[in-house]
Amino acid sequence: MPKKRENCSQFNLTNAAEAGNEGKSKKSAANNFSVSKSTLQYRLKNSDQKVFCEPAPVLSVSIFYMLSDKT
Question: What pTM was estimated for this model as a whole?
């Protein structure tokens, strides 16, 4: 069974992505900041997408405003 890696922090992932953009290899940047290489590759490839660290809201925006107006 493969070794499970701990969840990386947003801070480490950001620093690893910056190191990768500055010319450091993906493998060494991932190892230095304790981030999985595949996660770092995905982040570098999709750097224009916003990454959410929390679950998506359950209510849509229109329902939220409809409920908040009733109080």
Answer: 0.57
Neighbours of 17 (CB within 10 A): 19
Going from the C-alpha of 52 to that of each of 10, 24, 56, 68, the distances in angstroms are: 10, 26, 8, 24
Annotate 13-45 with three-state secondary structure.
Answer: HHHHHHHHHCCCCHHHHHHHCCCCHHHHHHHHH
pLDDT of amino acid 13? 86
* 3-class secondary structure, 1: coil
User: Per DSSP, which regions of the chain are E strands?
Assistant: none
Contact 36, 5 (CB under 8 A): yes
